[in-house]
Every structure is written in C-alpha cells, then in structure tokens.
C-alpha cells in the first residue's frame, strides 16, 4: 500500500511541475528581447514594434530626414504605406553595413489559418535600407512608406 501512495505522490509532484512550466511559458510569451537601439537591426525592430502598437509617431521618428521631409506624419498615418505585419512572424536574416549605410534583411513567415484543408504558410524576404544620420540609424527605404509627390 505504501508503494501506491509513493507512486501517487510522485505523479502529483510531476503534474504540478509540468503545470508550473506550462504556466510560465504561456505568461512570458509575447515579450520581445530588444536588439541594441544603436544598431540597424535594432532600429528596424523598434520601427516594426511601434507600428504593431499603433504608435505611428514613434515609427515615423525612425524614418530618415529625407523621408520625413517628403512625407508629413499625417500623410504617413493616413496613407498606411508601411508593411502590414498582422500575425506574421519576422526573423532577422542578416545585416550588411557599409559607408554609413546598412541593409537589414528579414525573413517574413505568413500564417493563414483560414484556408481549406488546414493552415497555410509561406515565407519571403523583406529588406530595409538605413543610413546614419547624426549618429543614429534611420530608415531610408523602401520608398513605399510615404506616398510619392
């Protein structure tokens, strides 16, 4: 009889540990490890996070002075020329820096759960162009972020 109690107690402890780990994973999901703010990939990450939060003024601040000159904050917000992320997942692939400019390439994976016969997934690359402006990295393209004038 004592072996049955011991087995039951061990099973209960294991179940509690599994539950604790599951709760920890669920409650910490969604937190983002921020990349350095003074790096090109950190600027791209913060730009996309600002758009996700719908903080368009912050996102607009990551644009270069040339883009901000061509496109007011009001035009930027009303035109919605930025990339839509929705439920997509973006992974940094590579960063290339040269002569005060940088290219940040990210792999975008798009999940579409509303297709017949299960979910669909496809991926593509998105490249962000940046330049150093007064010691800070700023986005310079693609040009579709602001309407052409």
Can you put this structure into words, describing what you see?
- The protein is of the alpha+beta class and 149 residues long.
- It folds into two domains: 1-31; 37-145, Nuclear Transport Factor 2, Chain: A (Roll), CATH 3.10.450.
- The protein is 40% helix and 28% strand.
- The protein contains five helices and four strands.
- It has helices at 2-28, 40-52, 56-61, 65-70, 73-79; strands spanning 89-98, 101-112, 120-133, 136-141.
- The chain has a four-stranded antiparallel sheet.
- The longest helix has 27 residues, at 2-28.
- The model is unreliable at 15-29 (pLDDT under 50).
Total domains: 2
Oligomeric status of the shown chains? single chain
- Radius of gyration computed on alpha carbons: 22 Å
Outline: elongated
Elements, N to C (H/E): HHHHHEEEE
| Uncertain residue ranges | 15-29
State the helix count: 5
List keywords for this structure.
Nuclear Transport Factor 2, Chain: A; 5 helices; 4 strands; alpha+beta; 2 domains
Topology:
Blueprint: H1 2-28, H2 40-52, H3 56-61, H4 65-70, H5 73-79, E1 89-98, E2 101-112, E3 120-133, E4 136-141
Antiparallel strand pairs: 1-2, 2-3, 3-4
